[in-house]
Amino acid sequence: MAKLTVSFRLVCLLMLATMPAIAAYAGSSNIVSVPTLGVQGEGLPGVLNYILVQLDHVASQGGPTIQFNEVNLGGGSRVGEEWKEGARRAVRAVLHAVGDSGHDWMITIKNRSATSLTDGMSASAAVAVAIMAAHRGGVLRSDVVLSGQITPDGRLDVVGGLPVKIEAAANAHYRAIIVPLDQVLTADWISSTDVASRRRVQLIQAGTLDEAYHAMTVR
User: Fold this and answer.
1) Residue spans per domain, the chain
2) Which CATH number, 3.40.50.720, 3.30.230.10, 3.30.870.10, 3.30.360.10, labels domain 2-216?
3) What does the angle CA 4 – CA 6 – CA 7 come to, to the nearest 5 degrees?
4) Average pLDDT, 10 consecutive residues per value, the chain (219 residues)
5) Which of 57, 80, 136, 176 is an S-S bond match for 119, by CB 3.0 to 4.6 Å?
6) Of the candidates 217, 219, 189, which has an alpha carbon nearest to the alpha carbon of residue 203?
């Protein structure tokens, strides 16, 4: 676990080194890192990615502004259009949940992956939790990871490839995964619970962004 923590901190420091500077601040900058799970393709193992979210309150009043940092630094940081749309939905969901217009928000998002390109929306709920933590000053638990799509009104929607994602989480020493409440309706739910039981990973069900946030943060 110590090796994993050191590696994770190194990844975060490398990612911070490439986050773009912002000229005009109206307040302090809050940065939150969050792990996410992905799939590489049919028959391939799952992967663990890290996402860094930076929330700034800026002098400009035309927000929320979202920018994606895709500068590579010894690994993959490029994200596809579907991934970016998921991040935009995450921002809308957070603003809906906290009752803020986000007019002075600037959100910078950087993905860090072992693969050259990451796409899909299964990381969008984790991005939403990270943005909310940055806004509220929350601290994320180090033993929990989240896989789920977020809707603009803050509901968690199902994802694919959960069995291999559970394997990836277990290999990285995560002991719990937050999954959408409706994940039980998917075709691979039984195999997911079998893998979770075998790898001793707890599946925590959440239906909304607020539920996911409380399950993933230190209280």
Assistant:
1) 2-216
2) 3.30.230.10
3) 65
4) 42 46 50 94 88 92 91 76 97 96 95 88 97 95 96 96 97 97 97 98 98 93
5) 80
6) 189
